[in-house]
Amino acid sequence: MADKNGIQITSELEMVNDKMCICVEREGSYERKLFVENKGGSDVEFTYYSPLQWMHCFKFEDSARVTRNDPRLISPGETYEVKLTFFAEDVGVFASTVAFEFKSTDLSSRPFHIVRFIEADFRNQLVMALAPVEPYKPFRLSSLPNVKYNVDEGQKPQSQVLNRLEYEVLLQDYNCPGYINDLTTILKDASRVPRGHLQDKKSLLETPLSFQNYADRFHLLLYLEEAQMLVDIKRYNKENVTMTQDKQNKKLLELEVPGVSENRPSVLRGDHLLLTKSKDLNLPFVTKYKGYVHRVELDKLKLGFSSKFLSSFINNMKFQVEFTFNRLLMRLQHRAVQLAVDHNLEEVLFPTGSTAPSSGTKPPLKLFDRTLEKNHEQYTAVCNIVEGVSKPAPYLVFGPPGTGKTVTMVEAIKQLEKCIPGARILACAPSNSAADQLCEKLLPHVDSHKVYRIYALSRSPAEIPPSLLDCCNLSGDDYEYPSKEELMDYKILVTTAYTAGRLVTGGLPAGHFTHIFVDEAGHAVESEAIIGIAGLLRAETGQLVLAGDPKQLGPILRSPIAIQYGLGLSLLERLMTKNPLYQKGETGFNPRYVTKLLQNYRSHRSILKIPNEMFYDGELQARADEYSTSLYCNWEHLPKRGFPLIFHGVQGKDERESSSPSFFNTTEITKVIDYLKKLLLTTQGKKGIAKISPKDIGIITPYRKQVEKLRKAIRMCDKELKVFKGIDELKVGSVEEFQGQERRVIIVSTVRSSGEYINIDTDFNIGFLNNEKRFNVAMTRAKSLLIVVGNPIILSSDSTWSRFIQYCTDEGGYTGMNRTNIEGTDEIIVRIAALSLQMAEEVDTGESSIQAYAHPEWRNEQ
Ligand SMILES: Nc1ncnc2c1ncn2[C@@H]1O[C@H](COP(=O)(O)OP(=O)(O)OP(=O)(O)O)[C@@H](O)[C@H]1O
After folding, report:
1. Domains of the chain in sequence order
2. Ligand 1: distance of its center to the CA of 601 in Å?
């Protein structure tokens, strides 16, 4: 970039972070001058200039049409102009790197180069309304000094909970043993040979999982995971932070924690933080104030402290903050693996199929959802679950997205409730949204007083679906836990896997539940999936049913070592891959234990094609009803009629604001809003297109900040959308929040527009790139129309996305940014390397290296 040999390149454009920037707010063409000035003492030949990558929206011209064969002499003191035209056609941020080549008149000299970065930003009103509220300034991570301290206990949120459920079954601490750090070091370094008990632990990890080593192996894996969590949570410690008093509740203090809504760090209601007054830090002995989390609101925490602390609190007081993580979730898993052994669940967890199948034919079932009767696999699965043919082995319902796993499970639960008078059912899922969905699907056919949805205190009441308010444990603004006896009266309890642990603690006896169902079982670590099983299921009499798809989102873990030794394998996947009862034989799967569903009833066949080929060996059959999946096949905004899939390429910018580490992309938001308005306002009910309401549309994006900005754009900025009837029911959420869900129309905003942040995505397991499972879930939620808005160049660096974009292009579904002549960073790097090479090697062949770095398109033009 440096000016060289007296040549300076300046322009009329504003310089921002070493870039020449032009910012416009309207369509049109904009001309700006670049100045090549000779400030040296001798003549210089201007031999060439070229953008290193071709951008259709930029044009460069000069009066003499400089070429190598016809260079322009620039004498000392002279300035020569190059005209840049920016064609603003579509909102976005467009960047170009331009290389200028010169040669001094001395014949023996070699060419030299100067590079300039040019960025053009075409923004509209919405982009401006959503712009960063203040520049991004990452917060400094600090390791707090080891000082002696005492802890001042804070105010817990639980105080308002009506708790009639006793604590009958002990939950021990399961503290991480001291040797775990040494073991971690040894396991990370293959050259180190462990001795004594560390050797025993290493051998335990290397021995295949069996019922004999079940609890010991899982305890060890969980400790390894916890050790990594402890290291990771320290990254979030903060210095010199201030708090403010909450406006609604003066007893709470508000602390800003950017990233908390994306689980960076993960903080739930009821967790606690430790705060030390900054001014006390030099003291030999300090007090750490415990603040309990009463609410998590986007990037803010509302904390409850002791009254002593509150009376000494003054605004702008500075603190050091240490995050802790809630060990409860680890402890519940430790207890579960122990209870699995104590309750002898060997035939459930390592089934051998030793018991004879029940004989005799049962009368045929009349299903609530008659459509399932037409699918032999689903119908058989429901009958087999009701008959309990796999007992004590678990019954598995697995298959790709939209094949009806959840509806099969729900139908089986309804049939059990109807046909087996003594049936008591526990229905679980790893996430709240999946558990809510189970409950919502049960309600149309089961009396609401027979079903009870139990939430943990950490669940924000605002997120509870209105349809479940009458059958859950939220009472007014507070949660309650009914007594054991009251809970045992319900025929069906629905909860997350973790919250099922409270039922174990509450002393519900093993064998009370005749059937336990776990949906989305591929999403949970085995030790998590069994929290609601171990201690509640009696192996000889109970029936366990697992449903899921190992190709969708799996467990999220922190420790590479725990993953290496198998903690990332879900119970569902372990049974399917390691247990002979669940393997595919010559005649397919054994229907006594497993049903594989392969008929997709959700999506238009064009939407299914890529996930089907990439993740399901093409086995998936598109069986959704033609009428409903074709509703948008004639939509006027489709690039190609009959292909209800759009990839809209945009050239945006991934931005951050304030101290939030999360990303957003306002150019993509503009496009998403455009499509939303086309769907809801301009083409509603037009030309054979069915009417659609906001609840039938879902917007998926991987970053929390983009979720927040999209919601703001829809509910606050756009004057037509914000007053649109039912707009609050339009769900905008992360992929995790959409797992198990479907919508008639799905719009995906991928956000990423810069290669430099891809490592952050990989490190924190966020974003879409390098994450096939997240891609799979997002792409398989739409029934009749899928619109993906993203930067095709960045996404194409990932083989899965590249194939998807190619597919859309081949089928005519690609639109937006003209890609034909745009290349990725790799090509630019090659061209920059070509420049440097020539300088480094000091070769002067008399031939310019320009051919090596100029874009072919540019050469043709010249
Ligand atoms: N036999 C069937 N006939 C018609 N429609 C069906 C049938 N089975 C399921 N469906 C419909 O297919 C859609 C997907 O079903 P469901 O959500 O149960 O699938 P899933 O396998 O659990 O999906 P995911 O893996 O994405 O969670 C739903 O709209 C459901 O009503």
Report:
1. 7-123+824-861 (2.60.40.10), 138-153+235-326 (2.40.30.230), 365-556+569-597 (3.40.50.300), 605-816 (3.40.50.300)
2. 6
